[in-house]
Amino acid sequence: MKKYLFLLFLLSSFAGESFSQKDSIASKESGRFQLGMRSTISAFSDARSLGMGAGGQFRIRFGSRMNSDWFGDYITTDIGGLAKRTDYHIGWSVLYYPLNCHGTKGKFTPYILAGHCFDWTNVQKNGFYTDYNMPQSRFSSAVQSGIGTHYNLTDNFDVSLTAQYMIHLGSEIRTIIFYNDAIGGKDIKIEKDGLGLDGHLLINLSMNVYIAKLWGNKK
């Protein structure tokens, strides 16, 4: 009987220590506030070319396995040397850590993400334009999902790489490059259609630094 009581005592002690460690990790990670800057590559399906941009973000962590990104991006895309597309993104994403869930120097912290953003898009021909290539703009809403990872250079500083696919719901802006006999060279049409889905791949590389602990254990 004494052996069973002793074994029960060991199991309860181990379980208590395990829960205590989990609570300690959650308390340490929850409430962390990070500030960062990011560079962006965007592959637009309509322009068939890469957009380049930059932006900023901050993170607020809600628990040991859940974080959030709040971001803004400015992206420009050259369309065949004939026009320029400009995109502004502002949105948020929820990050979930299925494996390693706390940042430690020299470790990777992979995650999956999903979120939402708003954007404003403008497409404008370079130089003078006519009635078939007047500047067009739109406001749209988007959802995104993807994967990424942090690499923790220190306990309080990381470099993050994210790949996500964004689907925008709004008026479609289409560009068509063609040979114009009247000018003896390439020309472009810029057309705005009704509501449609516009998807593109977004890749972000960011640097993020821990600024403050908003709540929880500050140690």
Termini gap = 43 Å
Question: Strand order of the main beta sheet, please?
Answer: 1-2-3-4-5-6-7-8
Q: What percent strand?
A: over 45%
Listing every helix as H and every strand as E from the N terminus to the C terminus, the arrangement reads HEEEEEEEE
Name the overall outline.
Answer: elongated
Largest sheet: 8 strands, antiparallel, barrel
Total domain modules: 2
Radius of gyration, CA atoms, in whole angstroms? 24 Å
Q: Would you identify the CATH architecture of the largest domain? A: Beta Barrel
What is the share of helical residues? 10-25%
Which fold name corresponds to the CATH topology of the largest domain? Porin
Helix run count = 1
Counting DSSP E segments of at least 2 residues, the number of strands comes to 8
Mean pLDDT: 84
Write out key terms for the chains shown.
2 domains; mainly beta; 219 residues; elongated; 65% strand; Porin
Summarize the structure in words:
- By secondary structure, the protein is mainly β.
- The protein has 2 domains: 1-30; 31-213, Beta Barrel (Porin).
- It contains 1 helix and 8 strands.
- An 8-stranded antiparallel beta barrel has the order 1-2-3-4-5-6-7-8.
- A hairpin with a 2-residue loop joins strand 6 and strand 7.
- It is elongated and about 70 Å long.
- The two termini are 43 Å apart.
- Mean pLDDT is 84; it is low at 1-25.
Brief write-up:
With about 220 residues, the chain is mostly beta strands.
